[in-house]
Amino acid sequence: MGSETKRSGFAGLWLAETLRVINSVNADWLNHKAVSQVRAATPDNAPQTLAVNWSLSVAERDGLVQDQLRWQRRAVLFLMIGMLLSLLAGFTGAITMLDSQQGVVNIPWSLSAILGIHFLMLLIWIISLFIRSDGAWSGRLLLSLLARLRGHHGAELAQGFVTLSQRNKLMPWWLGSVSQLVWLAGLLGSVLALLTAFSFQYYSFSWETTLLPGSVLQWLQESLSWLPRILGVSSDTLTLADNGTGLADEERRAWASWMIVVVIMYGLLPRLLAFVICLLALTLRARFAKLDLSHPYWQRVLGICLPTATGGRITDPAPDALVSARFAQPEGVFDGPDAAIRFELDASQTSEELRLSAGQIREVDTRVEREEELHWLKATRPKKLLILCESGNSPDRGTLRWLTRAGACAGKLGIFLMPPQTGQQDRQVIWRQLLTEAELPEERVMTDWHQVRQWLQPEAGSSSWQEESQGNV
């Protein structure tokens, strides 16, 4: 359970939601083997913590933690590329705007070109925060952007991220954080362009207008100088010039400095403040983010993990094909050696009572191993197949379906239910009931080793793997 410390908080919830997305199309991913570890790591049995810890265990086992880390690195790389492009666009745009004025900078026009779109988009973002929305449009927008991030389980990680963010109302703040960073980079490019141009080229400055009276320009200068003046940047020595002629070098430097300060004060600082607000909102909201435990998937997980879960039976509606799964009478010739499978059990759960070496019992834990084992059984066609199951785990439809498929590959199928832990005896009863409903003969469902030894006795004229292993004990 080393992944909880590394993938805690929102990252852990994100992994859990991603597993839910994956398992919505693949119900066989339920990992009973991790249950004992999860319970040990969650002494208070809080449902949210149980669900997350169980998901972290499965994610670590199946490599999803590393997939998430790679996905995050790609996302950061894409963001850095976007910020670099924005910085270059801001730099190029400001240089082009200055060059088009042929050495005389019209200050109102230049500031409008640099800050106009910035102010408009910032206003739209602020208004959007007060509009009630379920986040669907922002979710679709972010999902379309995240779809560009390829990689193993990339689509599922993106869907899990968006679903979790929408449910916990984090989407506007994620999008806000990204947009503020991109705008910060663009405005920084504009400031760098002004510094570069004013440092290496000779410019004069003017306040020009055709329709507006001069008093408007005077008011505009005083208004723009208000914030710099509060922060200690004085503009008292600046005088308006209608065409930029007659300005002394000291006045040109003063106007250049004033213009750069205005772009920083009204461009960079508001975006930086907006980014900090988004970051704080994300931090606070992510701290209280939760999974939707009412979802049938999480109900199944909690049914497995909660030691005192009531019932433990499958409560979500199932397709008819799953409900009607039955242990059918095997057809054909089964002349392969008897086989035993430890199904989703910890390696510590020994089977010494069977007098078998570890190499003679096959292991099944993951979905891939389930399919591989079915192929092996079809090729081997054992006379008898014994499957050892953890009776403390609630059986899900994927498990029952796999057991029926495995039983069809052997002449006789026996299922041994490992002794349950204290307080879980009711689950053993549930196992028996479900296996009986699936038409497995009651004598094939065993709960003590004496029954197993009796069932494993070789029939007349045949030998079993139990006898073959006696000499190794």
TrEMBL record:
Keyword set, alphabetical order: Membrane, Transmembrane, Transmembrane helix
The keyword Transmembrane helix is annotated on this UniProt entry: yes
Transmembrane keyword on record: yes
Native source organism of the sequence: Pseudohongiella nitratireducens
Membrane-traversing stretches: 76-97, 109-131, 181-203, 255-282
Pfam families: DUF2868
InterPro entries: DUF2868
Protein name: Membrane protein
Origin: domain of life: Bacteria
